[in-house]
TrEMBL record:
Name the UniProt record assigns to this protein: Alpha/beta fold hydrolase
Top-level taxon of origin: Bacteria
Organism from which the protein derives: Nocardia jiangsuensis
Gene3D superfamilies (alphabetical): alpha/beta hydrolase
Sequence ranges assigned to domain AB hydrolase-1 in this UniProt record: 49-270
Entry GO MF terms: hydrolase activity
Taxonomy of the source species: Bacteria, Bacillati, Actinomycetota, Actinomycetes, Mycobacteriales
Keywords, ordered alphabetically: Hydrolase
Length: 288
């Protein structure tokens, strides 16, 4: 949680003309760079696509990275119409770019999109990486209550109050202790700059209406890596391991001293884990 690093984050939209119009005329902003196995990052509803370049500087050296804004986020247009629509949007974008198979990386709420896509289109998914998954082996009651409290905070005090509610949950105890007030202010500034109240309200409401129970996980046939911090408010280390056990070909990795966004709090380890996972799956595929 180094303030200098936070302030140096590159969130700029580079090629604003890089948009793809899906079937209902929604336009999706995307960026595609690098060569090698394709890795697609599916952003959660409060992290725009350009954020990922700050956590993938090493990964892009040997992989082709696709990032995009969800509809009603960042530089993408369109209204949210359910998480099923996000799955359809992803399929249409991959078709447009001629990407037959990709690794999917989801974080927080977008792990639901990645899970659903992997179940519905298994031939298009080389591997699945779920970071801080929001589903639990014990159901979704806690997640639902937390998200309702987020929506209440947004309605009563706007994006700033929502950030104040989210911040102590999303970031780990160690990160907050080291970063102090300066890191909090720097992150709040960026959160308010990239998220409007209207977008947050619509996307939170949409997320509340989707099914996040873990029953679909046994149907995920792709190799999977589940990542979470040991200080994640949403899933415990034991819960993460139980989720991995529910899947045919998955393993769990817990990051010490990290919260809900381990790629932010432990970027180098996050990249190493992703690189190792992709290299292992690619080697197995070539040997088969």
């Amino acid at each position: 949680m180094d303030v200098r690093t936070i302030k140096s984050f590159d969130l700029a939209y580079r090629g604003i003309d890089e948009r793809f119009r899906v079937a209902d005329d929604c336009e999706l902003y995307y960026e595609l760079e690098g060569t090698g196995p394709c890795v697609t990052f599916v952003s959660t509803i409060y992290v725009v696509s350009t954020s990922w370049r700050n956590f993938t500087r090493n990964l892009v050296r040997n992989n082709r990275l696709l990032t995009y804004d969800l509809r009603n986020q960042g530089a993408s247009s369109g209204a949210p119409t359910g998480f099923d629509q996000h799955t359809s949007d992803l399929l249409q974008l991959l078709d447009h770019l001629g990407i037959e198979r990709t690794y999917l990386v989801g974080s927080s709420l977008s792990t639901v999109i990645c899970r659903d896509f992997a179940v519905r289109h298994p031939d298009r998914v080389a591997g699945l990486v779920l970071v801080g998954p929001t589903f639990s082996p014990w159901g979704s009651r806690r997640r639902t209550r937390i998200m309702r409290s987020w929506l209440t905070a947004l309605e009563s005090g706007g994006p700033r109050q929502l950030f104040d509610v989210m911040y102590p949950l999303v970031f780990g105890d160690r990160a907050q202790g080291i970063g102090g007030g300066a890191a909090y202010l720097a992150l709040r500034e960026r959160f308010l700059a990239i998220n409007s109240a209207a977008q947050l309200r619509a996307n939170l409401t949409d997320a509340l209406e989707t099914t996040v129970d873990a029953e679909m996980l046994p149907r995920v046939t792709a190799p999977a890596l589940l990542l979470a911090g040991d200080d994640d408010f949403c899933i415990s280390p034991s819960g993460l391991r139980k989720l991995a056990d529910m899947m045919p070909n998955a393993h769990a990795e817990v990051f010490d001293d990290c919260g809900h966004l381990p790629f932010f709090e432990s970027t180098e380890r996050f990249e190493r884990s992703l690189c190792a996972f992709v290299e292992k799956v690619e080697a197995q595929r070539q040997a088969a």
